[in-house]
Automatic annotation (TrEMBL), chains A, B:
Name of protein: Transcriptional regulator
All residue ranges annotated as the Cyclic nucleotide-binding domain in the record: 39-140
Keywords: DNA-binding, Transcription, Transcription regulation
Keyword RNA-binding assigned: no
GO molecular function terms attached to this record: DNA binding; DNA-binding transcription factor activity
TM spans (from-to): none
A Pfam cross-reference name: cNMP_binding
Domain HTH crp-type residues, every copy: 154-231
Record's keyword annotation contains Transcription: yes
Coiled coil: none
GO cellular component: cytosol
SUPFAM superfamilies: cAMP-binding domain-like, Winged helix' DNA-binding domain
Amino acid sequence: MTADIIRSLKIDCSCCPIRHRAVCAKCDTDELDRLREIKSYRSCQAGQVITLRGERLDMVASIVSGTAMLSRSISDGRTQMIGLLLPSDFIGRPGRAEAPYDVTAVTDVTLCCFRRGAFEQLMQDMPHVQERLLEMSLDELDAARDWMLLLGRKTARERIASLLSLILQRANLPEDLGGKNARIELPITREAIANYLGLTIETVSRQLTALRRDGLISIEGARGVVISDMDALIAETGDDDTLTA
Amino acid sequence: MTADIIRSLKIDCSCCPIRHRAVCAKCDTDELDRLREIKSYRSCQAGQVITLRGERLDMVASIVSGTAMLSRSISDGRTQMIGLLLPSDFIGRPGRAEAPYDVTAVTDVTLCCFRRGAFEQLMQDMPHVQERLLEMSLDELDAARDWMLLLGRKTARERIASLLSLILQRANLPEDLGGKNARIELPITREAIANYLGLTIETVSRQLTALRRDGLISIEGARGVVISDMDALIAETGDDDTLTA
DNA sequence: CGCCGACTTGAGTCCCCTCAACAAGAGTGG
DNA sequence: CCACTCTTGTTGAGGGGACTCAAGTCGGCG
């Protein structure tokens, strides 16, 4: 995100790309003005650590552009990704001074930051912010719980298939949802995929080639994946297809 | 929970056992009056299904007494428990007509139910309810994400150790937290434990006997567990002990 | 006593992990 | 341009941890 764009956002929230999905989605113009007074922008490079678990954190923030990942890890190096943060997603927790997870920028990231104290005060006065934050939290809770099923019970092949169809669902326009040959770009490295799915990079790699051998997908370079048989892929996710529609 | 107690709760929320922890925790007496108008009580027997994923759900509810479990499953029978609901925990989601998960009573359960439409209206008018629901949702989100680390990365032995120390933390008074020979009662069957930890009942059983052979715990009957070496057990959880304190 | 459900224990198998070598780019510097 | 390195990803061989299938134990209850 260029410095020019950020400069104009500082003055006016109305052209913000996440205006209608972020924590401020329900705010009217008066409320936006109050938010504007306490906001500031921050850029992070790909790979940079945004917060560390246990560290003091006096900000909360929305992701304006880029992708970040939430993770937890054990001292021996095992790491589990706990969530993927896309534009409009929220970082930090009102009412808590310590960061509960590690947050790392996957791509270059632009943040819209609020001082935590001021934001908490604002939430009291502006129910629209609290409402939206509740909605967003409940959505994340659902997503986390869906992921628990994957981590606890699915096979490696099912996990890969689930990830691919998840990315397709998010990234692709509804027009060709049923169409063949939808192409997606994996937003993250193999290592990040492995950490997301609770697998190793080798297993991820092997399962991707297995799906390719079986004719469900084809692979273009390291990151590109073409879904050649969408229905078969969904069948491989292991999900009860009566509800995923 | 006896019918007598429920009868008195219908009239007066102030003696409700979850008055200070449930979604109504922050309400003043006026607000409680409004809640009282739309509430009703419901009892479920142990083992009974409270909601089914995908089913229409026109209520939301707080657990007044008993234990219930949240789970998701795949058509071939694999099941993953997604959360344990204890008194004061909340069931259902404002703004959504379909139950997102299966909820099953583990013990006999008493629910304090609200019609969903009326509850949603109330939330608009009473920020205290919304505030509390947000806090509770964020706590559950943290718990779900902690569990993702366990499901994605921990060994069977670590999972069992984690569960035991979790139960001990919740159930036990802080007085003898460091003390030896704390006794806990497993609140659920081996099958439920397995579903919670993403394991099979056989593996759960084997790991429990392994911990017994190694002198960390001893087992009394099917449900009783005595922690003989608390520090060693915590060391086995795999958690980074610098933060769990 | 005999049955039933919950739990334990054993034997064998398989899936995924570990360790290791190899391939394909992308920079870097001469 | 090439040699070199570093990173990222693929592939193979082997081992181990958890699962599957099956039998056995224990306690409760009619």
